[in-house]
Each structure stands twice: as C-alpha cells, then as structure tokens.
C-alpha cells in the first residue's frame, strides 16, 4: 500500500516517470516536474525525470534507453505550450509532442497522463489527439498522487476526482471534482505549504543549474491561479479562478535553495506577481528579513524578474522589490485607450482596475528605485483602429521604460472569454470578421460548446481544421486598415504591421520590440528558437532576455560580452 510516509521508508517503491517533451530552445526549466516530483516523493513514490529538452537531437535514443531499462506504473508528460501563440509565426508544437508520445508508448505499456498549462487550455481534445490514457486540467500534484496510488494498488483510476479519462473513439470524460469550488478555483489541488524540491546536477531529476546556464533564468511560483477575467487570457480557466497562495516561508526557502545552487536570476511564474498584493508584499518582506539577518544568505545573490499588472503598485511595493533584489519588471497594460480596454482587462466582477496614469507611475517608481522595465501592448483587440493603435504606440513610447513591446493579433482559446464570444458570434455558420489563421484554406467557423457533440469537438476547432490539419485561430480587429479587404481567413495582416514600424521613430527603435513578418530575423522577438536569444545564451547572458534587447545589434555582432 502507498501512503504519506516519506519515500525513504520504502525498499521497493513504485516508480513514476515524468517526461518533458519540449524541444524548443532556449530551454525553459520544466518547473511543473519539480512540483510533481515533490508531492510524489512525499507520498512514497520513486520519481525519475526524462528531460528531452537538453537532449533534443537524440531524444529517440534517450526514450528507448530509459524505458528499455525501467518499468514505471505511470508516465506523466507536461505540455507547457501547444504553439508559439505568436500571431505572425503561428508555429504549432503538437506534432513533435505526439511523436514523443508515440515513441514512449512504443517502449512502455504504462499508462500516460498529460498536463501543463498549454495542455490545460484544450485537455479533452489533446487526450484524444495524443491517444493517451489520462489528462489533468490545472494543478496536477494532488491528482497525480491519487492516480499513481490507484495504479500502484491495482485500484480504479475512475475514483480519482477531476481526472480526465480516455474511453476511446473520441469519448473523453472527466470524473467530477469533489466540489464545484474545487473544480473552478482548484486551490485545494495545490501544495501550498512546503517548498518544491529544486535540484541541480542529477541526471534523473530536473537540472535547474543546467537550464539556468543554457537559458539565463530560473523560475519561482508564489501563487497559482487568477481571480481576474481578462478577455484573452486562459489562466483562470486553465489554472483556476482563485488565488492559491503558497506559504511565504516555503517560497523563500525555495529561492534560497535555488540561489545556493547558483541559479541567481529567478522569474515569477504567477499569472501576475502583484495581484493579491498583500501576499506579494509578504513574500518580499520575508526575502528582505532573511537578507538583513543573515549576511551569508544566498539570497544576497538573488536577481528577481517579475510579471505585473499596472495596479496595484505603490511606493512601499517598489521599495520592497528593490531591497529584495528585483532587477526588472515586465508590466502588461496592453493598451492606453480606456475605450479599448473597457470590458477587456477586468476583474472577476467585470470592472477595470487601472489606467494609463498607473502605468506612468509604475515606470517612474521603477526608475527611482533602480529597476528595469518592459511595457507590453496587445494590439488588435475588438474596437482597435489605426487611430487607437497609433495612440497606444505614442503613449507607450512616452513612458520612462527600458523596453517597449508590441504584439499584433490575439490567439483565441476555447475557454477564454474571447474564444467563447467568437464561437457564439459564429454559431457554426457565420464567418466572424477578423478571425484568421495562416493555414486556413476556408472560412473559419466556430461552434459553441452547446452546439458540439463533446468537449473534444469543441476544443479541436480552435487548433485543427475540419480535415485535421493544424489551424490555430487568431483574431485581428476588423476595424484595422486591412479589415475591409482581408476577406480570406488565411490572409496576413501586414498593413497594420507596416504602420507600426512607420510610427516608431528611428531613435527609439533600439528599445522597441515590434512584430515582424513570418520568418526569423534579428528583429524577431518570438521566443521559440530565436536567433537573438540563442546568441545571448551562447555568450552567457543571464536575466530576462528583454533587458538586453537595446544592445541586440552589438550582441549579435559579438562586441558586447556578458
């Protein structure tokens, strides 16, 4: 029997194998596998990590070698991203993921369970498409332990609340959660009390230092989920619509563990670090307390990089960030015009929570306290016109920001408010103006969940065309200049892109990230296999890649050492 006795009490512990199938570089630490390992080991399981990111040129050999020698009771696979979500490139990763799934299935008969935030945006469709046994939507540490325990004890997985089960032939169903509050908020599914075990230098675990050396950043989670309801965002649905706040001491214990291993630059993986600001401040105060009382603490080497919304953000918060070791702030106002943001960037109650003045104040405070800033806009929202887009460019360029970035176009996901609205407007029969996919060969028609026979069918239409080919769905405001003449769903929105480049003065170009036409160029700011990012890691740069963007010409030329 498996219970909660620590793993060391077992002589022959059941084995769970966790696989990272992400082949994109620069490599991003598969934090989810450390989180899962922590809970599985505490429940008495042996856990191996088969990490294919760092061996991507020989992943087939790695899979064959490992599973030729090991017999796990369960294989877990984390799918962090289904695609780049970059509107100009629209690169899909699912084909390489499925190749890896099939290779694992070739070598082991153990059931496979999928998870991860990308997976959780369309879990029923992916359980079916990958042909795997189970899926977990949202936080997986509690569910995976229950599933592994059932399998180790020859009990029925159908007893595991929240588990998604593949019954075959497109029939994918979810076992009900214990309560509706758990189903929606998922707070009870998160380990909030203990640090997550982070290791380096072990071939059977996630090698955090290796990722840091090759990717420039470590990562840290202070809370899971989000109570806000921004129209484009998948996280309240994919992760949970309540904040699952981790114990402050546990978070900082984990930071100390990582910095002691030499992982000094940590990026927060919260939906936004400053939402629920009281908890965020409590974490920062614990960092500051330990730095003040212990001169030998590895936290003195910490450089923190955070995602935030423009508000709440006050001077006390800025001072705490600076003393804690925050190096840079990535803030996402997404626009400067209230008429565009109204109903778009909102709380769970549908109310706006910041304005342009909040963005200005944040940038000013960051400069005052010596922290870098990256300000990002999402252009192409409903109601966007050439006028509103120009106002956004002028407004963000006027800020005292280190870097300003623009994205043109929005990825539509099945359960985001935008995705649901587009499906309702289309109703399975009408082509909604502004819907676009680079690979579309016919009008994009979306049906509502109620119109579909299953969740598999509903989710699939946001990634696949009716013939089964990849067709991720994007949205561009039809009020933009090309909206009236882009009558085919596969047409590219290049006129608006050209306007963006025209509106940014040459003297501002070094600090501005602009979208580019399809294809990798020195100006391309998409993450996946990006030449500039790969060059940064080759030269040993650390920290958020945007912080080095203004020097990209010199760095690509090799004249600026790390």
From TrEMBL:
The keyword Iron-sulfur applies. PROSITE patterns: B12_BINDING, RADICAL_SAM. One of its GO terms (cellular component) is cytosol. Its cofactor is [4Fe-4S] cluster. Residues 12-158 form the B12-binding domain. GO terms for biological process: methylation. Keywords: Iron, Iron-sulfur, Metal-binding, Methyltransferase, S-adenosyl-L-methionine, Transferase. Residues 212-455 form the Radical SAM core domain. SMART domains: Elp3. It comes from the Bacteria. One of its GO terms (molecular function) is methyltransferase activity. This is Tryptophan 2-C-methyltransferase. It comes from Jiangella alba.
